[in-house]
Design brief:
Subunit structure: Homotetramer, a dimer of dimers. One homotetramer interacts with 1 SecA dimer.
Radius of gyration: 21 Å
InterPro entries: SecB (IPR003708), SecB-like_sf (IPR035958)
Shape: elongated
CATH topology: Bacterial Protein-export protein SecB
Pfam family, one: SecB
Order of helices and strands: HEEEEHH
Helix content: 25-40%
Structural class: alpha+beta
Strand content: 35-45%
Number of strands: 4
Largest sheet: 4 strands, antiparallel
CATH superfamily: SecB-like
Subcellular location: Cytoplasm
Distance between the termini: 41 Å
Oligomer: single chain
Strand order of the largest sheet: 1-4-3-2
Family: Belongs to the SecB family.
Number of domains: 1
């Protein structure tokens, strides 16, 4: 019976583990350079979205993943910048016992998928507080973006690294 307990405990220690520890806003920025004049114009927005992720190994098996969403909205044909908003949505994740490829995918796609709804809501709230119409960003397929990045790295002769 003791051997069975030791085997079960050993398997539990080597089994993959994933746990979300905390989600938080790391940085937040909003700028409306043409206000209040922009509010008197016909609203014909064009939205530019830039997104980026980065990860950092913390102590032990903890990792910080930061998803940055930067939105620039221009109005009308003149292309005047109505507002610029940016959020760095971060999370701390406990990730144990994954091989390098699984760890890279988890940090590069799975964790950003978890963070994106929080970042999207934070941006929407920020924009409406600036007195602009709601900004409803479409969902993002981080698995596809991760696959594209892997292909780019392979073509360039680079190897993905987990920091």
């Amino acid at each position: 019976m003791t051997d069975q307990q030791n085997t079960a405990a050993s398997e539990e220690e080597t089994a993959p583990q994933f746990s979300l520890q905390r989600i938080y806003v790391r940085d937040l920025s909003f700028e409306a350079p043409k206000s209040p004049a922009i509010f008197r114009q016909q609203w014909e927005p064009s939205v530019g979205l830039d997104l980026n992720t980065r990860q950092k190994a913390l102590e032990g098996d903890f990792h910080e993943v930061v998803l940055t969403l930067s939105v620039t909205v221009k109005n009308g044909e003149s292309g005047e910048v109505a507002f610029i908003a940016e959020v760095q949505q971060a999370g701390i994740f406990l990730i144990k016992n994954l091989d390098d490829a699984s760890m890279s995918h988890t940090l590069g796609a799975f964790c950003p998928n978890i963070l994106f709804p929080y970042a999207r809501e934070t941006l929407d709230s920020l924009v409406t507080r600036g007195s602009f119409p709601a900004l409803m960003l479409a969902p993002v397929n981080f698995d596809a973006l991760y696959a594209q990045e892997l292909q780019r790295m392979q073509a360039a002769g680079e190897t993905p690294t987990v920091q």
